[in-house]
Design brief:
single chain; 107 residues; mainly beta; Rieske Iron-sulfur Protein; three-stranded antiparallel beta sheet; binds FE2/S2 (inorganic) cluster
């Protein structure tokens, strides 16, 4: 497993990006639940955000792609509006251990 950050580094109802060897993981706290997705929009396969750690729409109701405005549900990453509607962000397995967020790796 790879340590990504402390849970407290992620504001409640907001998201942050953590760089790993092959890209970036978006970590999201959503009503007490921790979610993790690859920072990769299913529309063009590019990163969702223009500014660091800015992944949500203005109401913090959806994950929003800054490129063409696609909106994704926070709980499962499903796109509900935009050019990739019906497609999903790729969920990433993470575990919370002693207040730290760990990426679960296969090796
Ligand atoms: S790249 Fe995300 S909506 Fe187009």
């Amino acid at each position: 497993m790879i340590r990504l950050c402390a849970l407290d580094d992620i504001p409640e109802n907001d998201a942050i990006g953590i760089r790993i060897a092959d890209g970036e993981i978006m970590l999201l706290r959503d009503d007490g639940e921790l979610r993790a997705f690859r920072n990769e929009c299913p529309h063009l396969g590019i990163e969702l955000n223009f500014q660091p750690d800015v992944f949500l729409d203005s109401d913090h109701a959806y994950i929003q792609c800054a490129n063409h405005g696609a909106l994704f549900q926070k709980h499962d990453g499903l796109c509900v509006f935009g050019p990739c509607q019906g497609q999903s962000l790729v969920a990433v397995p993470v575990q919370l251990v002693d207040g730290a967020v760990w990426l679960v790796t296969s090796s």
